[in-house]
Amino acid sequence: MSAAILSLGTELTRGEIANGNATWLAERLSELGHDVDEIVTVGDDDGHITAALERLGRSARLILCTGGLGPTTDDRTAACVAHVLGVPLALHAEAHADLKALLERHGRTLGPENEKQAYLPVGATMLKNERGTAPGFGVTLESGAAAYFMPGVPGEMQAMFDKEVKPRLPAPQAGWLVLHLRTFGLPESEVGRRLVDLEELHGVVIGYRASAGGVHVKVQVRTTPSSLAEARHRAQTAWLAARERLGSVVFGITSAPLEQVLGELLQKRALSFGLAESCTGGGASELMTRVPGSSAYFHGGVVAYDNRVKVAVLGVPEGLIDGHGAVSREVAEAMATGICRTLGVDVGVSITGIAGPGGGSGDKPVGLVHWAVVHRGRIASFQGRFSGTRVDVQRRATHAALFSAWQIVKSDPSE
Fold first, then answer.
1. All domains of the chain, ordered by start, with CATH?
2. Cross-strand bridge partners of residue 8
């Protein structure tokens, strides 16, 4: 089924926030077998919203829309949909009751601003919002297209899609079988070069998505109910060939990111983990704790940005810093040893570098990063020079250090 995603909000068209909702929905629809033909972003203007809905209704059979369901005057979605349908807005009794109960639980009363959210186009099906005040709704446009309208707040939208919208979606006649490979350490061009002929050899489509966390490879095959077994064979054959060609840079075989794969390995082997960070400023710790259940293995992190913290908290000898500089193999190793000692963890990782834009020198240019991993008393140290902005250097250094930790723990023959 052809699908379109419509994102509403002037904050999107002005570039004030990134359109993560559209990315999330497109990925979910693709996984379910729906082809997303268009992603459209429109500001808070009645004429533009109405025109977008009318046009998409003629070209798509399914429309998912986010935004514009709030209590303020710029939230115009329900009114625009009612105009397109040629029906009035009316107070929806269930939406009104849910909204009133929610506000009362938070010690608030239902005023006219919030009550506005309970007015839906006549004939619309209400979609419950269990995480916020804005109910969603679904309608059928004159063209026959099914359209679902959800809040713009990501957490509310995602929960509503999973519980309210997804069960209502029609089953597609065809879908995509997708197998994953997550890699780190090779540029996208080199990953593509190694896999260049697999599409033709096996009749698959290979997709690539590069980020600071590496290159995510997707081996994809279009399927129908009658061709599923044959498609699965083609996909598996191509996937095995891709994995062999990529070799040691593959860290994952699902869509899970590096921090989750590392965490699962640590938990499986009952290892505790800690971080000593300088130039990354806690970014690696943030990534590790983003994973649900990370408290099972992540004990903590120290942001030793100032050299005095490296000495006082991590026990780095002052002579090492004076003799080699804070950005050095020797200090990185001492930081990793220190975090193991300070937190009592099995695996310690340190990162120290020059993120820029200033602070570099001829011997130690901007982008130079040293990191070290301590595991079972053994130390491994690494060095890299990363390009890009300050944030780019921090992100790339973070992922490089976590990948090294994964490699070392994974390859330990005693585990």
1. 2-168 (3.40.980.10), 175-252 (3.30.70.2860), 258-410 (3.90.950.20)
2. 42
